[in-house]
Structures are given as C-alpha cells and as structure tokens.
Amino acid sequence: MDWNVITLNGSSIIMTFLFDWISLLFMGFVLIISSLVILYSDDYMSGDLNIVRFIMLVLMFVVSMMFLIISPNVISILLGWDGLGLVSYLLVIYYQNVKSYGAGMLTVLSNRIGDVALLMVIAWMINFGSWSFIYYLDFLSGSLEMELISFLVVLAAMTKSAQIPFSSWLPAAMAAPTPVSALVHSSTLVTAGVYLLIRFSPSFGYSLNMFLLLISGLTMFMAGLGANFEYDLKSIIALSTLSQLGLMIMTISVGLSGLAFFHLLTHALFKALLFMCAGGVIHSMGDSQDIRFMGGMSIYMPFTSSCLMVSNFALCGMPFLAGFYSKDFILEMFSMSYVNGFGFVLLFLSTGLTVCYSFRLFYFAMCGDFNFSPSYSMPETNYNMMFGMVGLLVMSVFGGGVLMWLICPTPSMICLPYYLKFLTLFVLFVGGWVGYGMAGFSFSDNLFSMNLYGATSFSGSMWFMPFFSTYGVSYTPLMVGYKATKVFDSGWMEYFGGQGMYWALFNLGSVNQWFQYNSLKVFLGFFVMWVVILLFILIY
Known about the structure:
Layout: E1 2-8, E2 11-16, H1 21-44, H2 51-69, H3 74-92, H4 98-124, H5 144-160, H6 169-172, H7 178-186, H8 189-200, H9 206-227, H10 233-253, H11 257-284, H12 297-300, H13 302-316, H14 322-336, H15 341-366, H16 383-407, H17 418-421, H18 423-439, H19 448-460, H20 465-489, H21 492-496, H22 498-517, H23 519-539
Antiparallel strand pairs: 1-2
Helix pairs in contact: 1-2, 1-7, 1-11, 1-16, 2-3, 3-4, 4-5, 5-8, 7-11, 8-10, 8-11, 9-10, 9-15, 10-11, 10-15, 11-13, 11-14, 11-16, 13-15, 13-16, 14-16, 15-18
C-alpha cells in the first residue's frame, strides 16, 4: 500500500507499507502478546509510582516493532530498528541502579553495531535507485552489491538477535522489569533480526548461508550448555531464548525461512508465558530469583506452576504442544536437507540440551521441599496477572496446531528412515533424563569437582563472552589512556613543558637569591680568587 505523505512542486514523498501474510500474522501476534503483557503489568507494576511512563514506553516499543514489520523499505525499517534500540535502553535502565546502567550501556552499544550496518545498507542501496528492497531481491541476487548488502544485513541481524560474538547483552538485559522481558524475548526486540533475515533470505549465497549455519549452531549450543549451569531463573529463560534464536537462524541458513517464521510465532507464545510465570514466582518469593530456594511450588502456587510447566514442555517440543509442531517439523526437514555433519550434530545436541535444562528447572522448582524461609507464605498471583497468563496458556497449547493449519494447508511429505524419524524423540527423552538426573547431583560435594571447575566456569559464563564484551573492550583503551597520561601529561611533556620550565626557573631564582643573601662573602671570595690567579700568573 502506497501512502502519499506530501507532494511539493511535483516531487512526491511516498511511504510504502507491506501487508502480506507474513507481516499481518506477525503483527497480530505482537499485538495479542503485548496487550496481554500490558494487562499483566497492571498488577505486576502496581506498586510503581511511574507506571504510566512504563506503559507508554512499552507502547512505543510495540509501535517501533510495527514499523519494522510492515516496511518493505530500508529507510522506514531503520526508523523501527532504531526505535527498538532506544526504547530497549530506556526500559533496561528503568530500575535506576548501577547494574541496570551497565546492562543498558552494553545493550545499546552492542546494538549500535547493527544500526551502523543498516546505515551502510542504505548507502549501498543508492546504487539500485530505490530503497524498497522487496521489489528486486530475487532479481539482483548474485550481484556483488547484493552480496555485500546481504552480509551487512546478516551483521545487523546478528547484533539484534544476539548471535555469537554479540550474545552477552541478552542475559544482561534481564535487568529490565519482567513484563518487558516477556515482550522483548517473545515477539519484539530479538525477533527483529530474525524477521529481517527472513525478508532478505532470497538474496543469501551459499557461503553466507554456511557462515550463518556455523554461527547460529554455535550460539544455540553455547546457550543450551550455559543454561544447564545457571541458577538465576530469568537468566535460564534468557539463555533458552538465545538457543531458540539460534535454531531459527539455523533454519533460515538451510533455506527453510517459512519454517523459521512458523517457529518464531510458536516460540513467541510459550516464551511470553514462561516469563510471565517466572515474574509471578519471583513476585511471590519476595523478589528472589535463585531456583535453589524454590521447590514444592506446585503445592503453594498450583496455577502458576501449571502454566510454567506447560510453557516449559512446549519449549522442549513435547508432543502436541505449540513448540512441537514447529520444532519437530524443523528437525525432520533438517534431516531431509543437504546439511554438513557438524551442523546436524550441533542441532540435535542443542535440542537435547534444551530438554536438559527444562527438566533441571522442573526438578528445582517443582520437586522436593520448599527451600525458602520456613515461615514464608506464598500467595498466588493477582487476577490481571492470571488473566494474562490464561490467554497465553490456551495459545501455547492450541496455537501450534492452528498455525500448522494456517501456514501449511497442504501436508508436506517427509520420508525418513526409522533411525532419523525416532532420533528427535530419542534426543528428547535422553535430554530429559540427563537433566533431571544431573539436577540432583551437586558438583561441590566431591573431589571430582576441582577438575570440573574450569569446564563449568567456561560453560556457565557463556564461553567468557561477557568478559570480552565489557572488561575486554574497555580495558585496552582505558589502559592506553592511562599510559598516555602517565608518559605525556604527567611524564616527558610535563618535564620538558610547563612544569619542567617552572622548576628550572625556580632553581635559577633560588641560586640568584643565594648570591644576593651572601653578597659580601661572595665578593670577598671572588677577590681572593682573583688575587690567587694574578700571583699564579706573575710567578710563572
């Protein structure tokens, strides 16, 4: 749809909106989820004095996402893209403390790299005479300019969707309020990069797809491994988002962008519910996020626990929940595709790790005794929070089947041998068994743990990526600045410059002063010296 914004002296500024099945479906999901999240926020943020400001920020966030979804033009995409970046920064620093400020800076600076890449895409698209990429994406694929533009789009999507090496900002952004996390991790900020890749996917060449396959596969594996060593409830769910983003981008890289979009939608449903349940649990536990303090939640909070487990099992890909329809489809289509062995192993291993950390969470939260203060009462969540969760609970159960009917009206023929057909179920059950078994095993109780310490700290810290993103980036320039200050401003420049000249003149002045204070003694001394020299000359 073309909208003529203004016509001046024969020149028209026309804004184009794209309403195809992808954008309309995605917009519908974003609006449904955001409306339920805002309803949930009404109770969750009830004690906050600035709740109106919070709701306005969330609405700005949703409007930016709408702009990005319906734009076939790179300029208007940049408006939505930058809007998401700015509002996400404001929401991450919403609770004003040092940790939030640090997380906000990490978030916004990581995303600036992608913004610059998108600006360079705009600059390179001047060669084509139009910024509406949707019209000539297939036509120009394979040209040098399009390859460069595709690479820059991939770079932008990697920063926004937090792929390696830009992953560390996603768990850091957990400093934002929980309703924001539910929105960010389900359908807005992190999915913007995946959505852009889906739009640009026809122009990707073989080498770029292989690069994407490797990066997204490693991200998926790293996030799945890290979540198994994490004890913070929100961080576990954040790392699971990272893992699912890796799965979506991996699916795009093998040419299955429609399936990636399908998983994007189903993932949005159960991930928003998962964050809402986590928010309810944290709220009821006096703002404690450590899963080791939980236990026996199903007795104290039956409704929230039920929602948490439904969304958790949907994330695993348990049969006939929302995640199963897209995830199982992706794994089977992947098994049919021409993919290298490394990508295949990474995908199935990461799927197993997803089930592993989900069952570990199930063990800590639902099994055993309540580990918090013995006299602490656990109230169930409020009416509005429960209403928001019920809406998403129904969609997490039935959404996958309904979307399957909508997106794939004609059934796909998947022909696989028995061992590949049952591999998905096998990985699922083994992952669950290992996760549940490992949760009860404590590394700190035995001597074996000393050998495992290095491996666990490496795996549990996202392969040291947060250190590289913060300490690694800031240490070198700060040290160079310190050395420069020490050598130049406080060193040689100061020695030969103002301070050195001052001390030289000061010392000369003190010598002159000494001469003036002792003038009689100096004159007599000089007189004796001259007499001695004259006698010496006369004698010899």
